Q: What sequence folds into this?
């Protein structure tokens, strides 16, 4: 990626994450005594870090593989994965929530003036987790080349199922 685009992309991601953090419900904090952190801050071993990054890479790759035939067929044909993250209770290892953030845009050129108008959209897609899911069981369940379709622990759903309801 060209350095200028990488800089603009990082600015866009930062802006989106700021909006997302303000607009998501704080229900994960409702458990008395809970102290939630980002999943990457909870992980302890090299194997856990590697599993987490493999899952994130796999999710992005799986989404890119299906985007054009599914979610990216409508007005927003350029939907991009921005970030997948989970909150984890420091004491218990239980996941409070996982969310996958996406962005897309529609650009229209005015033929008379050459001006470009842009409509942007952002999606915050919650993962349909079973209550009490631990980060360890989550990492184990999503290992492999198709984490988007893996059955989530204690559930019959996948992250893909959450995207259908969201995108």
A:
């Amino acid at each position: 990626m060209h350095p200028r685009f990488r800089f603009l992309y990082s600015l866009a991601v930062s802006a989106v994450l700021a909006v997302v953090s303000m607009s998501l419900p704080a229900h994960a904090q409702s458990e008395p005594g809970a102290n939630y952190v980002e999943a990457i801050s909870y992980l302890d071993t090299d194997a856990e870090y590697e599993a987490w990054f493999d899952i994130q890479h796999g999710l992005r790759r799986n989404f890119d593989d299906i985007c054009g035939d599914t979610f990216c067929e409508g007005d927003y044909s350029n939907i991009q994965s921005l970030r997948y993250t989970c909150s984890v209770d420091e004491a218990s290892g239980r996941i409070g929530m996982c969310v996958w953030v996406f962005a897309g845009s529609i650009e229209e050129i005015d033929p008379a003036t050459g001006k470009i108008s842009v409509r942007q959209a952002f999606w915050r897609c919650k993962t349909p987790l079973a209550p009490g899911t631990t980060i360890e069981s989550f990492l184990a369940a999503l290992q492999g080349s198709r984490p988007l379709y893996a059955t989530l622990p204690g559930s019959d759903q996948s992250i893909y199922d959450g995207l259908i309801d969201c995108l």
User: Anything to note?
Assistant: The chain is about 35% helix and 25% strand. Residues 46-67 form the longest helix (22 residues). The longest strand covers residues 95-109. Residues 24 and 124 are 8 Å apart (CA to CA).
